[in-house]
Amino acid sequence: MTDTPDAATLQVRRASCPTWCVALHRVENGEEDWVHRGEPLVVAEGVTATVCMSIRPDTGAEDGPYVIIGSREYSIPEAQDLVASLRALIDSGSGPAREA
After folding, report:
1. pLDDT for res 2
2. What are residue 62's DSSP bridge partners?
3. Which residues 6+ apart lie within 8 Å of 10 measured at CB?
4. Position 100 confidence tier, pLDDT thresholds 50, 70, 90
């Protein structure tokens, strides 16, 4: 009896994957196989963020990368603006309290 590989052993990391990609790709996934995903990061209770993009294997055309926070998709510049806004908010809250 010859063992046939199961689906897990058919998953591979592509040479075209961005360095941050943790997705295991399978040709059987069709267009979903083009999607590269980063490791999810918990940013708030019940909310995760991850980076993703797609690269068409036949043309090399790229869409993204994007940062997905919850169900919202941000371009990299939009995500950078969000980080800057959060940093300003944190900085304003970490200063000395005003005296009454």
Report:
1. 46
2. 55
3. 26, 28
4. low
62 by Cβ neighbours in 10 Å (0-12 / 13-18 / 19+) ranks as middle
Asked if residue 98 belongs to a domain, the reply is: no
Is 35 a domain residue? yes
Instruction: For residue 4, tell me if it sits in a domain.
Output: no
Tell whether 100 is covered by a domain.
no
pLDDT digits (tens, 9 = 90+) for 14-72: 677 889 998 888 766 667 778 899 999 999 999 999 999 998 877 888 999 999 999 99
* CA 35 remoteness from chain centre: 10
Where does the chain show beta strands of DSSP type E? 35-37, 41-44, 47-55, 62-69, 72-75
Which phi and psi (to 5°) does residue 90 adopt?
A: -65, -45
Both tokens of residue 32?
A: 């979903």
41: containing domain: 9-93
Number of domains forming the structure of the chain:
1
Q: How far is it, in rounded angstroms, from Cα 71 to Cα 99? A: 41
